[in-house]
Amino acid sequence: MARTLAFLGPSGTYTEEAALLYDPEAELRPYPSISAVGQAVAAGQAGQGVAPIENSIEGSVNFTLDLLVSENSLLIRYEIVLPIEHYLMGKPGTRLEEVEVVYSHPQALAQCREYLERNFANAARSASLSTAQAVGDAMSSDAPSAAIAPLRSAALYNAEILDSGIQDIAANATRFVVLSHSDHEPTGNDKTSLFFTFAQDLPGQLYAVIGEFARREINLAKIESRPTKQSLGQYVFFIDCDGHREDPMMREAIQSIRGRVSSLRVLGSYPKWLP
Description:
This protein has helices at residues 14-22, 34-42, 62-70, 106-111, 113-119, 131-140, 151-157, 205-215, 248-258; strands at residues 4-8, 27-31, 48-55, 59-60, 75-83, 87-90, 101-104, 124-127, 145-149, 160-164, 173-180, 190-197, 220-227, 235-242, 263-271. The chain is an alpha/beta fold and 275 residues long. Strand 3 and strand 4 (59-60) form a beta hairpin.
């Protein structure tokens, strides 16, 4: 039986493209939001789920970070890095100078900000639930409209390509994670993600945590914070580091920082993406 794989839908999104790259034989199930993808996996409605977590232009996808904090049963099992090329599309016969509204997911709108300011300074920007849904929104709009979306969406919605490669930075890529109830066994070329919080704000405590990794020569690929949403000035700290949680040095580092933080959860160890 094919593995069921939830993804941020509808069909035609970059997340679907990442899901197909991860497992072309899986039974793909679209969900309307990142939260819904996570809940489907957590509830057993899908074996695994694919969600965007980071873009090379706009940074982290906060919906996914918040999901990983709130859903204790979810772990990261795999990562996929997908080059992103944005296309502008609309109803057949649409003229660029007539466009009054441009639809897309907020991340895509942000990744094409300079292009939009240069070419559609007077057009409204309208956020859609996904890049693929943006095409549906543009096609059903009464006003002359366009959408920023993947190439595949044009075929699915019978839209006309109006422009291509419109992202502000050519080397645009999005990192996706595969959510599951288990992470990946060691491969020898792995990454580990975790998050932690502090009970109170004290000098040097973040430095002390980072030092535990530095003393063991564990490379930190990424560190960032998100509000806990409980009180102003309280944060959740996310770290991506090289190595697997079962590696001796990594195990030592994780154990050593448990006494320095109020909460800690390893979000998973998984193979580094190799294109």
